[in-house]
Amino acid sequence: xxxxxxxxxxxxxxxxxxxxxxxxxxxxxxxxxxxxxxxxxxxxxxxxxxxxxxxxxxxxxxxxxxxxxxxxxxxxxxxxxxxxxxxxxxxxxxxxxxxxxxxxxxxxxxxxxxxxxxxxxxxxxxxxxxxxxxxxxxxxxxxxxxxxxxxxxxxxxxxxxxxxxxxxxxxxxxxxxxxxxxxxxxxxxxxxxxxxxxxxxxxxxxxxxxxxxxxxxxxxxxxxxxxxxxxxxxxx
Amino acid sequence: xxxxxxxxxxxxxxxxxxxxxxxxxxxxxxxxxxxxxxxxxxxxxxxxxxxxxxxxxxxxxxxxxxxxxxxxxxxxxxxxxxxxxxxxxxxxxxxxxxxxxxxxxxxxxxxxxxxxxxxxxxxxxxxxxxxxxxxxxxxxxxxxxxxxxxxxxxxxxxxxxxxxxxxxxxxxxxxxxxxxxxxxxxxxxxxxxxxxxxxxxxxxxxxxxxxxxxxxxxxxxxxxxxxxxxxxxxxxxxxx
Lengths: 236, 240
Hints:
Order of helices and strands of chain A: HHHHHHHHHHH
Helix content of chain B: over 70%
Structural class of chain B: mainly alpha
Radius of gyration of chain B: 22 Å
Radius of gyration of chain A: 22 Å
Largest interface: A-B, 41 and 36 residues
Distance between the termini of chain B: 43 Å
Shape of chain A: flat
Oligomer: heterodimer
Largest sheet of chain B: none
Structural class of chain A: mainly alpha
Strand content of chain B: under 5%
Number of helices of chain A: 11
Helix content of chain A: over 70%
Distance between the termini of chain A: 59 Å
Order of helices and strands of chain B: HHHHHHHHH
Number of helices of chain B: 9
């Protein structure tokens, strides 16, 4: 194996890493916020909102992300009212389209994950909170959100890793992130294995760091599940 | 009316081609699932074996192929496979570039990915078999093959159905990425139709709907298979 070539490849690919990270971070933030709205609609009493959320989840989980991305990137430009609107300067950019489709897609999966987290909340805790007069936002903030989030965290970390991998599709709408640059290198040099190993290493290390961070968050959020310390910590 | 002509079955319609493409997507996914089942069974048994080397190798396989973007793996198999075939061709005296057929490369790539997921499914299913049953089988003198056929096989199959259903859905969606190698699957055909008619929005919606039909139909199929496989089991939590 040619070490000098590997080193050069690594340098080229690492230069594209900020793009992958930007895609990932924006998609997770916007997708997470949208998922909160969707899950709120999904569990609400309003039948229209509930069915809309059901449909949203069905569509975005049931079809490939690539087709969603192409629909936004190529499809939206077909309409005059979008091409001549104030949104067009943004929607013309491949980066914006990629982030938009990644966020829309992850929102569908994340909403389901959060819903299963909500289902794990014991009904008695909600009743107890209601009986002392908590409702609405206070109930959500103090009871529903913390418990649901803790329950959803393991499944959510899987979704986050899936999202890191999904950023690779942005290369197909001409956003030059790690996989896209790797593909360009492969077609220029025909050294598939070396380039693959470098790119794979980058993704694996990235995923490893993210999973460790999620595991740390889970550990921090669940002190009640840990075993009691052998020697009581003196309270100051 | 123009819309229906466009996606219909007439001489100017893309309906027939899209249906053939949907069939191609199903074929790629089915072959990939089969390849993945073989890889998955081997990797799962490596991960469950007592040998430390095999365990590590199995662990590396599942970590790498679940942690690296699917698109990258498709590039690896397609370009790597093609250069391997070219090298073999050169050794046999054929000059020039030989490509790996995109169907073979695509189903192999998706199979390699689904193998990593199926390995975890099979491992979980094996671990769900009550230990006492394995010991009982051993105690009455069943040998390895008989145990595998009578005790382990049927139960792993039963416990694995929901997981395999998930892998099938994943592979069905991953197979859309194979379109980058030029295979005329549902994704690729929608793309070609969109490009040549300049009706991008329509054809990606139609393609997306066909994917939705495939995923929801196969979801039903797996649910009923699960019900059927568990018909002798007492009702329990989380049942289909």
